[in-house]
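Most newcomers find our protein records easier to grasp once they have seen one. Each record describes a single protein and holds just a pair of labelled lines. A learned vocabulary of local backbone shapes supplies the integers on the structure line. Nothing more is needed to start thinking about how sequence determines fold. The record below serves as our worked example for the rest of this section.
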Amino acid sequence: MRAAGGLAALALALALAACSTPTTRMISQPGQTLGGAEARYLPASEPRSADGSLILRSATDPTGLSIAISSLHYASAPAVVLAPTTSDPEALELADNYGIPVLALPPDAAAEQEGAVAQEVARLGASLVLPVGMEAPAEVVSATELAGEPGALKLPPAADAAPASPWVALVPDEETAATITPLADREGGMVVVAPEPRASGEAVTALAENPEATVVAFGEGFPDEANLTWQVDTARTGVRLPGGDTQTIADGKFYVALYGHPGAPVLGVLGEQGVEATVARAEEHAAMFDDLTEATTVPSLEIIVSVASAFPGSDGNYSNEVPSSHFMPLIEAAHEHDLYVIIDLQPGRTDFLTQAK
């Protein structure tokens, strides 16, 4: 059942700009104004600035996504453009000409979506709704007398605002990306399909090149704010794991490792030669598998750095630890040659994390 009253319930009277008439016929030339009103962007704490914050928005449909973009970027606007999709060229051009938001409302929109659009129009303080390619539902506008003849409705031209600071929009899938990209582009946003930012080379690049950019995650499938925060912070470092452009042990990689301890041949082939020879041998072994798998072969080293013991030792943990200075030269050489390194711990009666630290 549709809620009665629309914006009337919100005490807002909106001018209905020729619902069935092409909206652009109702707009005068730039330079004339409607009460001198201009769209006002949100303050520096929002995505138009670069403050490195993280914002989550759960919207998934075109209406919800368009409202999310509007609410993130506009504190107020004298008018809004209403269109059936987020990618309507006429709607986007009209919005760009006057620096106002675009709100999407598909023909089959539910009453809840119409109500949500009405609430956003009220929040913006818009006194005019400009429908493009559709009729504005009663839920969105309260029918009032038209403001004069065609050509009499006037808006200010877009103000010369400072360029929007870059911000990154993370989305879970291509469908959401297609919906939100036309709106995000207007506000300087970079849209990246990355439900896990560390697993996307594009996301790592975008975040590393814009370390102070605000990040907005749109849609479902993201972890909670605390977990997404550390994932985003990790991606911002720009560091990538060997064998690709991501920060995760991803599908499509085949790791071939030499195992052992430097200088101890009895513990494995890794210890049978010096540092540079070990690196070269790891690369040779990995290359043997290049033609046997479609995955990317990644030469690797699995280095034993502690060995379980039958005796408690001075620290009582039944594990013999090797000083890091003994194996760091090998790790540094692996880093220089883009080899993956696995640290082999045998922590005895302590735990892996404690010993690794």
